[in-house]
């Protein structure tokens, strides 16, 4: 059953810009009473919240300054949210970073530990803190975890990013199954796995064969509709699912040839630059 957002509360991580802002706009447009934007960029967070509040006078837009890579900060912010606003009806784990480099070029603390913390550990900690309250009253709720096509296929110059998104996908789908099998299906989990999106986060990346660069608006619309419907996964565009299937059918050596020479996946990050205003691709 599609979730009716009228009068609900929505929490969006990475909500100060890009797709996070679009998710917040969509929530307000569909009748959410309260949207809480989480981000670590204080300036953008404040300006985005003010603009969103002006666009939806009847709703309340709040902000939480937090780094999703800081476990203790995430726990504290989630506990504050529960104390002040109760359990959210929708949680959108959108915040993420990408480091496009050869593995041995990654800085251990910033790139390896930092990427895993923000992209995988942070969402787990947030949901773990909120989930008991989300389960308690039996209300229909949603969790949208934004993973990536990189969670389904290996790719050069994306080793740590892919690892973080594989982790997110594995956790997210396992959580979905646990909720369904324990009679807690009123909280539904959707995992979103898009290919490259033109937010600036993947500036310089080249789209593989038959995989056009999506606009943020198209990506958010597809994720949003899947989330409200309670779908388990949304892989987009269709070539993401095709690649996953072909990869599963072919021997690894044969897949490497197809992925590299036919789909052009393996060279897609060769010219990666990332967002100019946020080095290393923070979105």
From TrEMBL:
Pfam families: adh_short (PF00106). Transmembrane segments: none annotated. Keywords: Oxidoreductase. Belongs to the short-chain dehydrogenases/reductases (SDR) family. PANTHER family: PKSB, RETINOL DEHYDROGENASE 10. This is SDR family NAD(P)-dependent oxidoreductase. It comes from Flavimobilis rhizosphaerae.
């Amino acid at each position: 059953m599609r979730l009716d957002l009228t009068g609900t509360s929505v929490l969006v991580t990475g909500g100060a810009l890009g797709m996070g802002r679009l998710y917040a706009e969509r929530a307000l447009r569909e009748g959410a009473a309260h949207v809480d934007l989480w981000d670590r960029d204080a300036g953008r967070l404040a300006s985005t919240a003010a603009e969103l509040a002006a666009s939806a006078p009847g709703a309340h837009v709040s902000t939480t300054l937090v780094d999703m890579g800081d476990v203790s900060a995430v726990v504290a912010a989630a506990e504050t949210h529960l104390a002040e606003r109760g359990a959210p009806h929708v949680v959108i784990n959108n915040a993420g970073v990408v480091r496009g480099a050869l593995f041995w070029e990654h800085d251990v603390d910033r790139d390896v530990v930092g990427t895993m913390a923000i992209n995988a550990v942070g969402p787990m900690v947030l949901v773990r803190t909120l989930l008991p309250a989300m389960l308690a009253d039996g209300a229909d709720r949603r969790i949208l975890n934004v993973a990536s096509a990189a969670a389904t296929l290996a790719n050069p110059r994306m080793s740590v990013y892919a690892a973080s998104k594989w982790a997110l996908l594995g956790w997210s789908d396992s959580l979905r199954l646990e909720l369904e099998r324990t009679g807690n299906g009123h909280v539904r989990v959707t995992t979103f796995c898009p290919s490259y999106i033109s937010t600036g986060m993947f500036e310089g990346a080249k789209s593989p064969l038959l995989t056009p660069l999506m606009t943020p608006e198209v990506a958010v619309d597809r994720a949003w509709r899947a989330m409200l419907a309670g779908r388990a996964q949304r892989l987009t565009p269709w070539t993401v699912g095709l690649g996953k299937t072909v990869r599963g059918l072919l021997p690894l050596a044969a897949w490497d040839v197809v992925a590299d020479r036919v789909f052009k996946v393996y060279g897609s990050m060769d010219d990666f630059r990332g967002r100019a205003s946020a080095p290393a691709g923070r979105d």
